[in-house]
């Protein structure tokens, strides 16, 4: 019996060793293929035998600076970097290469090297992360929530939330005291998304400069950006053993409790009063009542994932866009004066911005787009290849991750002459006819473009139009303004401004 048992143990060990060697052999073959492919393109180097390219930068900001320097010197369309020696990743930085990636139906990157896999514990398997049949079904069910007929009544809420935001600036106007605008804008965008999408009325903008939800999302994005550059923490079980991992889980639980509270409250209303019939349907109504062709609705987990996703994207990315636009107002006083002149004529002494006004602000719209070109609210996105893809005459194998560097795309010198110069006229009608359609992608493009981009643009226009119409905006002398890219583009030292009431 002991002899037989020993034989079984040896057989099992032999199988394990054989399997490990077989996997190593397969990896060695792939690795050799990857090295051959990457030798044909620009690679961030020198490559360390273990750390790959990771030893060359400590955060996403430094990573983007390195790529921008390479693009400026070599005019590259796609750039490779290595996450340790394990695998290469690719960054498309030119409209020609971005077009190939965006026109494909490749899913978001959920494998090794993909940031989205690390976001699942926070945002679930919602539209941002899901793929395949599930993504197609949910996108189809949710799309009606963004029809212009749904969006149009939101303008009154944009104005109401902006009233609170502008009133919060009064004390700073009266004292000429500098204020970091990002926290105040984040409160405004959170207030707006909760009221528009969830009919949630809370004292969001009256609880000081930072609501707990805003603070939680800010820290979650910071932790995710930090984790992305540490591939050994891609495995949740290992990451959650660390101090940062435990903090991440705690913050995820808080935002889940927040979103579940909003959902449960609406479900209770449905039980008490029935589905809405006499009021405007909001995003949450549509989530709760949507059904596919088989009559099946979204599960509670699906609804929570979409609520978490829309809360994050609807407030944090929009706050970044608005805050950096305010920075550019302060930096470019002549452009601020041009936009103010247009708004004075369009609004004609009306304090509120109407739905019709939104269609008649070409100079403000151009200003906003140029601001998002200069500083993209979302610095990049990722796709994971399910089949080989040829980009710039190089065929990238299936299974690898390809990033689209939105910031670099918006600053490619072959596409944007004087790319570091702020010129809103680039986006006036006469200037855009010759431009590559994939040269400006703040909301991505293709089938997986941002479903809420019209919602975001309308809100941005209202907030900025009302701000410019009421206040002059100035930067603070000697303050250091520096971008800090994470999931969204923040400011390393804050976006400090002063404001002055217009006479």
UniProtKB/TrEMBL annotation:
Keywords in alphabetical order = Heme, Iron, Membrane, Metal-binding, Oxidoreductase, Transmembrane, Transmembrane helix
Name of this protein: CYP4B1
Q: What is its EC number?
A: 1.14.14.1
Q: Which residues cross the membrane?
A: 6-25
Database matches in InterPro entries: Cyt_P450, Cyt_P450_E_grp-I, Cyt_P450_sf, Cytochrome_P450_Monoox
GO-annotated molecular function:
heme binding; iron ion binding; oxidoreductase activity, acting on paired donors, with incorporation or reduction of molecular oxygen, reduced flavin or flavoprotein as one donor, and incorporation of one atom of oxygen
CDD domains registered for this protein in UniProt: CYP4B_4F-like (cd20659)
The coenzyme or cofactor needed here is: heme
Q: Belongs to which family?
A: Belongs to the cytochrome P450 family.
Looking at the keywords, is Hydrolase present? no
């Amino acid at each position: 019996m002991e002899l037989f048992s020993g034989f079984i143990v040896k057989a099992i060990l032999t199988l394990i060793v054989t399997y490990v060697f077989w996997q190593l052999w397969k990896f060695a073959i792939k690795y050799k293929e990857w090295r051959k492919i990457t030798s044909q393109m620009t690679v961030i180097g020198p490559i360390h035998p273990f750390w790959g390219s990771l030893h060359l930068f400590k955060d996403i900001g430094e990573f983007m600076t390195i790529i921008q320097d390479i693009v400026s010197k070599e005019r590259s369309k796609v750039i490779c970097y290595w996450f340790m020696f394990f695998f290469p990743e690719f960054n498309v930085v030119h409209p020609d290469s971005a077009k190939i990636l965006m026109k494909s139906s490749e899913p978001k990157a959920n494998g090794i090297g993909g940031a989205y896999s690390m976001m699942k514990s926070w945002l679930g398997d919602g539209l941002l992360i899901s793929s395949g049949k599930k993504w197609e079904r949910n996108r189809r069910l949710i799309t009606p929530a963004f029809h212009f007929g749904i969006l149009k009544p939101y303008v009154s809420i944009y104005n109401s939330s902006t009233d609170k935001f502008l009133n919060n600036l009064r004390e700073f106007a009266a004292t000429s005291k500098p204020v970091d605008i990002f926290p105040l804008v984040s409160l405004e965008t959170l207030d707006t998304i909760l009221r528009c999408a969830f009919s949630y009325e809370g004292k969001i903008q009256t609880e000081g400069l930072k609501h707990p939800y805003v603070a939680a999302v800010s820290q979650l994005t910071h932790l995710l950006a930090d984790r992305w550059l540490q591939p050994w923490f891609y495995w949740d079980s290992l990451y959650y053993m660390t101090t940062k991992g435990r903090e991440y889980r705690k913050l995820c639980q808080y935002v889940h409790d927040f979103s579940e509270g909003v959902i449960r409250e609406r479900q209770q209303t449905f039980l008490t009063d029935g589905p809405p019939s006499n009021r405007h349907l909001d995003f949450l109504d549509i989530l709760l009542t949507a059904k596919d062709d088989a009559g099946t609705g979204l599960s509670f987990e699906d609804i929570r994932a979409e609520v978490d996703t829309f809360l994050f994207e609807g407030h944090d990315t929009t706050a970044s866009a608005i805050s950096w636009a305010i920075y550019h107002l302060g930096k470019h006083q002549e452009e601020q004066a041009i936009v103010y002149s247009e708004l004075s004529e369009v609004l004609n002494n009306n304090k509120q911005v109407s739905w019709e006004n939104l269609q008649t602000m070409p100079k403000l719209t151009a200003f906003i787009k140029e601001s998002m070109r200069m500083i993209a609210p979302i610095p990049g996105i990722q796709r994971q290849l399910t089949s080989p893809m040829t980009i710039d005459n190089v065929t990238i194998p299936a299974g690898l991750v390809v990033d689209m560097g939105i910031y670099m795309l918006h600053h490619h010198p072959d596409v944007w002459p004087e790319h570091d110069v702020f010129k809103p006229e680039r986006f006036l009608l006469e200037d855009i006819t010759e431009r590559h359609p994939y040269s400006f992608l703040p909301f991505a493009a293709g089938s997986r473009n941002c479903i809420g981009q019209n919602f975001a643009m309308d809100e941005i226009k209202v907030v900025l139009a009302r701000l410019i119409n009421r206040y002059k905006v100035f930067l603070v002398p000697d303050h250091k303004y520096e971008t800090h890219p994470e999931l969204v583009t923040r400011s390393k030292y804050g976006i400090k401004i002063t404001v002055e009431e217009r006479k």
